[in-house]
Amino acid sequence: MVYATIQDVADELGRTAFTDPAEIAQLNAWLRRANAAIKVRVPDLDARVDSGSLSAEVVASIEAAAVARKAQNPKGLRSVMRSVDDGSIQETVDSTRSDGVIRIMDDEWMLLLGRQTRGAFSVRPTWSWES
């Protein structure tokens, strides 16, 4: 079950509702992809939402944010340069948004997982009171 709506994505982007059927279909596909990416790491997502241990609003906001990042740069461009006569405009896109992938950010994973994850290179400080 996808938690975010097209309107959530529009709100995230700060724009009015989407009306083009092709855009709506594409955004729905991206929302499904964002949801699938989350379920790979949180396979019991729906059960956690149903039990109340995870807010549906949190999941929806994360899905909408991931799709909004994709919508802002769907082609995954790293740089854009436009020249008209003697003037030119050059834009560089943030690299976290420039690969065109639906991406869930680390801070969003922390919200979804509700705990700190351990990886191969993570460090957890410990204290010893023994002398």
General shape? elongated
Helix fraction? 40-55%
The main sheet comes to:
2 strands, antiparallel
In total, the number of strands is 2
Summarize model confidence as the mean pLDDT. Answer: 84
Q: Summarize the helix and strand pattern as letters.
A: HHHHEEH
Give the oligomer, counting copies of the same chain as homo and different chains as hetero: single chain
Radius of gyration: 19 Å
Q: How many helix segments? A: 5
Tell me the fraction of residues in β-strands, as a range: 5-15%
Poorly predicted residue ranges: none
Q: What structural class do you assign from the helix and strand content? A: mainly alpha
Which strand order spans the largest sheet, edge to edge or round the barrel? 1-2
Whole-Å distance between the termini? 54 Å
